Amino acid sequence: MTSQINAENLAALEVIKFPGKIVTVNTENEAYTAAESLMNETVVGIDTETRPSFRKGIMHNVALVQISTWDTCYLFRICRINNIHAIKQILESTGTLKIGLSLKDDFAGLRRLLPIIPHHYIELQQYATAFGIEEMSLQKIYALLFGRKISKTQQLSNWEAPELTNAQQLYAATDAWACLHIYKALKGEPLPTEYRKIFQTPQLKGIEKRFIQK
């Protein structure tokens, strides 16, 4: 089976949407409450969103951090929260494994806002290659594994808007959840029938230990 997917085949796939509950976090107190819940999880998916810049030399700060369990995704609107220490707590926790893609870029963006030393995380771009997957984008890795695609229509929307639209919330939640879904499938964890992978990958028990960044 191919380890890559082309644009034509990708475009033909059905769109996947996060099936769980979305919680928008707008205040410091809400952030600490969400962080407390998330740090009770053994593994979560994580991603960030930044307002796009269409002018040369202009770079915006990270506006949103989305962190997802299998059934709940928290959207931390850090562009509206004065104290984001709760995010630091999650990222530096050694008890909750964080799964993401292009985490180096996410962490670099967050370091512009606060000093962080992330612990206990896995970079999916590295992890997926161990299973014979050659694609590097979240959309293509997901499509290859599950035969569905992640919509990118909201990627360049305004993540600093006073209120996020339902479409923005769903897009952000889907990205973080998809990271977790990919990890669980590659690890061989039991999943509901509709979320099982179709791409046959080698069974590599315990391999994730090689990829966990301490």
TrEMBL record:
One of its GO terms (molecular function) is 3'-5' exonuclease activity. Keywords: Exonuclease, Hydrolase, Nuclease. Gene3D superfamilies: Ribonuclease H-like superfamily/Ribonuclease H (3.30.420.10). It comes from the Bacteria. Residues 22-191 form the 3'-5' exonuclease domain. Pfam families: DNA_pol_A_exo1. GO terms for biological process: nucleobase-containing compound metabolic process. The keyword Cytoplasm does not apply. PANTHER family: 3'-5' EXONUCLEASE DOMAIN-CONTAINING PROTEIN, EXONUCLEASE MUT-7 HOMOLOG. This is 3'-5' exonuclease domain-containing protein 2. It comes from Candidatus Caccoplasma intestinavium. The lineage of its organism: Bacteria, Pseudomonadati, Bacteroidota, Bacteroidia, Bacteroidales.
